[in-house]
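Amino Acid Chain and Its Fold in Token Form
===========================================
What this section holds: a protein sequence and its matching fold, both as plain text.
Structure line: whole-number tokens from a learned vocabulary of local backbone shapes, matched to residues.
Purpose: to set a sequence beside its fold so the mapping can be learned.
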Amino acid sequence: MKKQTTGSMSPMDYAMKYLTAKDRTVSEMQAYLDEKDFGEADVDATVERLKELGLLDDRRYAQRYVETRLNTKPVSRRHLYEQMKGHGLPEEYIREAMEYADTDTERENALAVARKFARQFAALEPEKRRMRVLSRLQARGYSYDTARSALETALSEEDEWSES
């Protein structure tokens, strides 16, 4: 099969350049190469070769995505699920990766986020502070009940700390 090129670069050249910045999903790579006007056969062959080389692996991507996301900017399980769907990951890999983000992990992460924003908004009046922290938690996809519980715990810890 003759490689189609856009300018002087082959589909593999574009793919390798696209993978330089960060891992990609199969869906993201296909869309990227499609934008470069390569034929379907060239795109499919390039994606298959990248899989063979271990450079495209949706299962690994999903697992790393969950771990990284929960360690750097925690969000709710629902929010995480939606983000992974947006990356075009297969449902099976999303479910497997989500096992890492169980209910206890979600509560712990919500509490960590509540503590962070409670500190950040410490100068606000108490009611405004509560509303702002609650709003930030819900913006990260936590349910009202989870967000409220995390907020109450974070504020009660502050009270205990200030009393000692």
Summary: The two ends are 75 Å apart (CA to CA). The CA atoms of residues 63 and 96 lie 8 Å apart. The chain has three domains: 11-52, 58-98, 103-163. Residues 144-163 form the longest helix (20 residues).
